[in-house]
Amino acid sequence: MGDEASGGAAASTGDGGGTPRSVTVGVPREIREGERRVALVPKVVGKLSDRGARVVVEAGAGEGALLPDSAYTEAGAEIGDPWACDVVAVVNPPTPEQIGGLHRDQVLIGFLAPLTSPETVQKLRDAGVVGFAMESIPRISRAQGMDALSSQANVAGYKAVLAAAERSTRFFPMLTTAAGTVKPAQALVLGVGVAGLQALATAKRLGARTTGYDVRPEVADQVRSLGAQWLDLGIDAAGEGGYARELTDDERARQQEELEKAITGFDVVVTTALVPGRTAPRLVSAAAVEGMRPGSVVVDMAGEAGGNCELTEPGETVVRHDVTIVSPLNLPASMPEHASELYARNVTALLELMIDDGELSPDFSDEVLAKACVTREDDEEAQE
């Protein structure tokens, strides 16, 4: 983020005369432990170039996703200091040190955790940075191509089931052999948003008999469309923006009682219930785990928010009552190639709303940009 960036990012901006320089988009190397994704991949460089943008990539930024610097330069990007660019695209929220290197009116795009890390957003606001949070993009039809929460949830749902299959002591599919028939595993997915639907689809492909549950009964048809059964507990907690509302105490008690009965009949339970900015609801009690057959598996995808299982230890794999409880963190980073590609498409779609003919000109009357922007000077609405 030093002076060399000014030369690296903003060099070759014209012919030395009065030619206006094109907007620059920087791609830093992610420094979060275990993070292998990168915000932009070589495949999208051409799209941004068509908009008149120049892409500057930090050396080694794509290594975790098996994307060498040469792949970026061949696509038309430059290797340099991304932090001096007009726009910086990241995956994870910036550290205080990184924020300290940003300048006023610079644009930052990424998962900025506006609900779970308000101190980060405040630091960006204090620095005068215009921040666009990928998790704040409205879930409307026009913004589907920018929905990074959904694209990464697809990856996570897929990997969660593979984690369950790896640790299960039983086959997922039914097997008919000379030694006899092995019944298919019974898999239950709690919470059937994007991650849950992908988990159901993946478990089905592996041959398990699948069942889905959610407090939003309107998703029952989506569950059945995947060949899964619907677990109906008689609770309707549909909320705004595709998320569930918080249950009342009575609903929560009724759900807990019914789930404890149901969970004991499954070999695999995958939990995905999570609402941004809230503690994860407890769906799998210690009593339910104790009632499961030895060798069963619980994969808790909500570990970063406390977990859906009472016995979850976020980031760890533990065995309780002969049941394996897995709580992986940042599952998308375990599939960095495709996770990065999907995320890069999301970021590029957002950038295409802001960049035209080499100029950065976000129109904040656009619903998508207005809601995604979480820090902007003289805009009280963006600061709420």
From TrEMBL:
EC number: 7.1.1.1
Keyword Heme: no
Record key words, sorted: NAD, NADP, Nucleotide-binding, Translocase
Domain of life: Bacteria
Catalysed transformations (reactions): NAD(+) + NADPH + H(+)(in) = NADH + NADP(+) + H(+)(out)
Class of this enzyme: translocase
Domain Alanine dehydrogenase/pyridine nucleotide transhydrogenase NAD(H)-binding: start-end pairs: 165-327
Compositionally skewed regions (Low complexity) per UniProt: 1-13
Gene3D superfamilies assigned: NAD(P)-binding Rossmann-like Domain (3.40.50.720)
Boundaries of every Alanine dehydrogenase/pyridine nucleotide transhydrogenase N-terminal domain copy: 26-156
Pfam families in the cross-refs: AlaDh_PNT_C, AlaDh_PNT_N
InterPro entries according to UniProt: AlaDH/PNT_N, AlaDH/PNT_NAD(H)-bd, NAD(P)-bd_dom_sf
The keyword Repeat is annotated on this UniProt entry: no
Annotated region described as Disordered, given as residue ranges: 1-28
Record function comment: The transhydrogenation between NADH and NADP is coupled to respiration and ATP hydrolysis and functions as a proton pump across the membrane.
Record protein name field: proton-translocating NAD(P)(+) transhydrogenase
Source species: Pseudonocardia nematodicida
